[in-house]
Design a protein that fits this description.
Blueprint: E1 4-5, E2 14-15, E3 33-35, E4 46-51, H1 57-67, E5 72-80, E6 84-85, E7 94-95, E8 99-106, H2 130-144
Antiparallel strand pairs: 1-2, 3-4, 4-8, 5-8, 6-7
Organism: Austrofundulus limnaeus
GO cellular component, one term: mitochondrial large ribosomal subunit
Protein name: Large ribosomal subunit protein uL23m
């Protein structure tokens, strides 16, 4: 009888690689973890993920510890039910699919800050550059298009 091995990457059982067969085997995880920026302020040691509906708390913990070497203290999950949409033009009801959200509390002393993907650039343009000329032009256009305070809010096309 061949030995059976369980890995944290797949939840299925498979046979151990036997010599003599020239094929190479790569076992990739069947799941995905999507890092989500939380809408509500979270503690600095908590990270929010959107995960597959079939993943359990133990699968999430093993996934992060084995693949990414992240120390995990606790995992909390909840299922977010998708809202039902109104009927469409063919009188069919539609529904947004459900998904699972995982809140991962990191190990002691670990903190997480969401990465700033689009950092703000310095907004001061160099004098004489194209950005500076564009900014001056836009300011003069805004000044030119301001309504005349003497007309009392009546538009120009009214002809007063």
């Amino acid at each position: 009888m061949q030995p059976i091995l369980f890995t944290p990457y797949k939840r299925i059982l498979f046979h151990v690689y036997q010599h003599g067969n020239p094929q190479l085997r790569i076992f990739r995880p069947d799941w995905f973890l999507t890092l989500v920026k939380p809408g509500v302020e979270q503690p600095p040691d908590t990270v929010q993920f959107r995960v597959s509906m079939v993943m359990t708390k133990y699968d999430i913990k093993n996934y992060l510890e084995k693949i990414y070497n992240v120390p995990v203290a606790d995992v909390r999950t909840r299922i977010q039910y998708g809202r039902s949409k109104k009927r469409n033009h063919m009188n069919q009801k539609s529904k947004v699919p459900d998904y699972k959200v995982a809140y991962v509390q990191l190990g002691k002393g670990q903190t997480f800050t969401f990465p700033d993907i689009f950092p703000k650039k310095d907004q001061t343009p160099v004098p004489g550059s194209a950005e500076d000329l564009h900014k001056k032009f836009m300011e003069s256009e805004k000044q030119r298009l301001k309504p005349d305070p003497r007309k009392g809010g009546v538009t120009d096309w009214f002809g007063l």
